[in-house]
Specification:
With 81 residues, the chain is an alpha+beta fold. Helix content is 20%, strand content 7%.
Length: 81
Amino acid sequence: MTHACNAICETYKETRPANGRRYGMGQKRCKACSIFIKWEGVFCPCCGYRLRTTPRHTEDREELRMMRVVSKNNKKPNNYY
């Protein structure tokens, strides 16, 4: 089965963040469409291909993992009574 881009993804296209860390900012990449998008789903809304949520390079993956750990530890507990 081929995954052809239908240009729907252009609606969700994201620009590069100032810090250059796309995955850290919640962007995902579709290999079939060759585009970074802001999308909550796991599959591309355009072609149905599974979106990449982590960088390919080990150093970048480790940095993203550390960013997620720090942000998780900095969350304030919910004290609802």
